[in-house]
Structures are given as structure tokens and as C-alpha cells.
Write a sequence for this structure.
């Protein structure tokens, strides 16, 4: 680290302590000029001191050449300047040395002390020289001129380079501080951009999961019922034509409903994607999938809840119809409601409906023909639901429906997001039970 702040400039292949060749050429040039000046001023010094002129010239050349190390050792340059001040040489070296010292990163007390020593030394030497000239009769001005000339000369040779050096040093430090702040802000912006990208990726993943969950809730239940009715139709087609016709009508109705729901879902997804693209073109910082997910949820709610629940999604009032659809598919379902029925927040009713729907869908998939109990309890501060099925009959065959294993996981996530409790698992009797409890004030808490 140099004393003049040159360490702030990245090295570019300069020789020795110089960061750049340009700085080296400048310092060498100043040193040559200073050496020539001191060499010429060494001639009268040698005559006054009574030493050989050649010795005075060599002394001046060596003293002036010290300026070449001003960037690395500015203190040494100023001390040499103070030392040769009585010989009245090194004016250029003094000015440049004081400037370099003041512009350096050295403590202010050191800069002030050396500048004061240079000022005092110049003032004393000038005072003595002017008094000698007046004593020899070379100057006929009054005595007041001696202190005036000494003070003026000392200030003129000391104050300007020191003040300029202090200004340049402060400006250099300010620029470096601004550069560091700019680099810090750039790093922070880069970090914020990375975090924003991570949040955007997280939001996209969350919305993809949400869309998949909504499509699963809307389509899986009806498709499961269609498969069950199709199996029943195949079994009774020849034995009971009337029942086969009835089952065929149910399959057709449910197929049309599932197709309608799927079209609505895809249409909303397409519209949401287009709106997301428009938002990006307007530089609106909203992830496009957020709008898609919200729209998909609304479409899912409209599709599953019918016209009455178009604005708020499926409600508890539709559970009886849901149970009736399963009963029409051949499932023996027992629905019981405890407590006084009342309305809840739309998100609470929608989640409760989805839990019952997913549980019934799983019964169709994995326990066809098993008797199922659906219990709904309205409590003071919560609503509880439980769907439990008995072991399926041995003669009953599985519906053969594929299962991704995400239905119960999605229900648990929904219930937990509302501060509720979700439990599912096999019973001791060999059946399966799905239970959930949702706080009545879950919407307000969320």
C-alpha cells in the first residue's frame, strides 16, 4: 500500500511501486527537472560554503533526484526538502513533495507537523537571507520588509501545495467511497435480483401445485364416478336393460359435466396466461402464474359448486348433492350432521367440501362397494368432518382407477393453511378414515 492512495488503482504492469507507466514517466520527469534545478542551485551554494563547485552540483543532483520516490515515501521527500532549505535549493521538490504528502493517506497530524516544519524552515531561511541582503546594502527597504518577506515566501511555498493536496486527497477518497458504494449497491441489487428470481420460481411452483390441485379436485371426482357407472353398466347391460339405460344416462351427464369443467379450466388458464403476458409487457411485476392460479381456482370453484356457488366456490350445502352422486353410483353412504348448521367463510366451506369430496373419491377408487359414513359436526368455534368406510366386500372388485397419491396431501396442505388439523389412515377394522377440523375463524386469521 502506498501513502498517496495509488493502491486504489488496479495494477496495470507499471514498474516497481508505480501502478501505471504513465505515473512512472511523470515522476521520473519531475525528478529530472528537480535534479537539474538543485544542481544549478548547488553552484552558488558551493561558492558560499567554500566547497568545490562540482561537489555542490553533485549534492544538488542527488537531492533533487529524491523526488522520484514521492509516491512511495512522501515523508522522505519532504524531510530532504527541509534539510536542503538552508542551501536555498529544491523549490520544485518542496512544492511537489508537500502536495504529495497532503494528498496521501497519512494521518493528518503527520501532514500538519511536516508542513509546519517546512513553513518554519522556509520562513527562517528567508528571514536570514533578506537580513543579509539588507546588511550588504543590496536592499534599502525598511525593517518591516524582513518579516513580511519571510512570512509571505513561506506561506507562498507551503500553503498552496498543501491545500491543493488536501483537496485532491479528499476528492480521491470521496470518489473511492462512491465507487465502493456503487459496487456495494450493485452487489445488493444482484442479490435482490437473485432473491426475486428465487421468489418468482417459488411462486411459479406454488401456482403450478395449486392449479394441479384444483384440476384434481374438479375432474377426478366426476371421472371416478363415470368409471364406476361404466363398470355397473357393463355388469347389468344384459340382465337389466332399464338400469343399464339409467347408468348410461348418468355416465353421459357426468361426462358432459367433466368436459364442461375441463373446458372452463383450460379457458381460464389460457386467459390468465395472456393477461400475464400483457402484464409483463407493461412491466408489472406480478408472476403470470399467480393470475393463472387465482383464475384457475375461481374456475374450479365455479365448476364444482354450480351456479349458486359461482362467486364463492363449493359450499357445505352441496355436500348432500355430493353424497347423492356417490349413492347413485352404487355406494352405500350414511350422512349425519351434528349441531346447528350455519354459514362459514367461503374458504372454510370450500375446504370442508373438498375434504369430503376427496375422501369419497378415494372410496370409489380403492374400496368399491364398502359402506361409507360421512359425519359433519358444527361446533362452537370449529367445523369437523369425518369420512370413514368399512372394509370392502371380498367379492367387490377394484375400480381400477389410477391414483397419484396427491389428493390427501393436497387436502392436508389446505387444512393446515387454515390452522386446522387433518388426519388420515386405516382403521382397526380394516377400513379407512379421513378426519379434519377447521377453525371457524380461519379466514379472519389468514
Amino acid at each position: 500500500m502506498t501513502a498517496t492512495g495509488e493502491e486504489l488503482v488496479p495494477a496495470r504492469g507499471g514498474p516497481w511501486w508505480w501502478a501505471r507507466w504513465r505515473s512512472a514517466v511523470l515522476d521520473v520527469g519531475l525528478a529530472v527537472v528537480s535534479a537539474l534545478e538543485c544542481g544549478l542551485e548547488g553552484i552558488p551554494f558551493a561558492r558560499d560554503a567554500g566547497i568545490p563547485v562540482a561537489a555542490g552540483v553533485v549534492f544538488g543532483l542527488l537531492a533533487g533526484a529524491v523526488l522520484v520516490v514521492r509516491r512511495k515515501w512522501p515523508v522522505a521527500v519532504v524531510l530532504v526538502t527541509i534539510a536542503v532549505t538552508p542551501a536555498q535549493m529544491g523549490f520544485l521538490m518542496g512544492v511537489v513533495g508537500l502536495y504529495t504528502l497532503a494528498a496521501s493517506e497519512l494521518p493528518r497530524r503527520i501532514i500538519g507537523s511536516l508542513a509546519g516544519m517546512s513553513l518554519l524552515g522556509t520562513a527562517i531561511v528567508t528571514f536570514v537571507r533578506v537580513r543579509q541582503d539588507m546588511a550588504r546594502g543590496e536592499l534599502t527597504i525598511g525593517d518591516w520588509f524582513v518579516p513580511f518577506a519571510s512570512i509571505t515566501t513561506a506561506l507562498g511555498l507551503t500553503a498552496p501545495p498543501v491545500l491543493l493536496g488536501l483537496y485532491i486527497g479528499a476528492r480521491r477518497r470521496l470518489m473511492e467511497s462512491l465507487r465502493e458504494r456503487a459496487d456495494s449497491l450493485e452487489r445488493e441489487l444482484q442479490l435482490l435480483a437473485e432473491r426475486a428470481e428465487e421468489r418468482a420460481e417459488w411462486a411459479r411452483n406454488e401456482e403450478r401445485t395449486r392449479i394441479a390441485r384444483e384440476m384434481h379436485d374438479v375432474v377426478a371426482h366426476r371421472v371416478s364416478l363415470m368409471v364406476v357407472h361404466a363398470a355397473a353398466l357393463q355388469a347389468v347391460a344384459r340382465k337389466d336393460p332399464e338400469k343399464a339405460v339409467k347408468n348410461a344416462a348418468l355416465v353421459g351427464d357426468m361426462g358432459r359435466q367433466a368436459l364442461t369443467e375441463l373446458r372452463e379450466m383450460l379457458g381460464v388458464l389460457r386467459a390468465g396466461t395472456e393477461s400475464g403476458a400483457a402484464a409483463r409487457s407493461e412491466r408489472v411485476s406480478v408472476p403470470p402464474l399467480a393470475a393463472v392460479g387465482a383464475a384457475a381456482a375461481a374456475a374450479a370453484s365455479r365448476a364444482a359448486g354450480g351456479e349458486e356457488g359461482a362467486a364463492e366456490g363449493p359450499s357445505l350445502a352441496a355436500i348432500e348433492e355430493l353424497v347423492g352422486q356417490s349413492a347413485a353410483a352404487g355406494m352405500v353412504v350414511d350422512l349425519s350432521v351434528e349441531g346447528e348448521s350455519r354459514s362459514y367463510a367461503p374458504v372454510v366451506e370450500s375446504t370442508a367440501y373438498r375434504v369430503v369430496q376427496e375422501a369419497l373419491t378415494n372410496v370409489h377408487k380403492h374400496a368399491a362397494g364398502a359402506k361409507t359414513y360421512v359425519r359433519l359436526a358444527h361446533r362452537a368455534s370449529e367445523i369437523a368432518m369425518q369420512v370413514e368406510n368399512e372394509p370392502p366386500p371380498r367379492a367387490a372388485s377394484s375400480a381400477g382407477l389410477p391414483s397419484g397419491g396427491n389428493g390427501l396431501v393436497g387436502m392436508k396442505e389446505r387444512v393446515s393453511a387454515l390452522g386446522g388439523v387433518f388426519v388420515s389412515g386405516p382403521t382397526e377394522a380394516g377400513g379407512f378414515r379421513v378426519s379434519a377440523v377447521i377453525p371457524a375463524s380461519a379466514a379472519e386469521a389468514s
About this structure: The radius of gyration is 47 Å. The first strand starts at residue 333 and ends at 338.
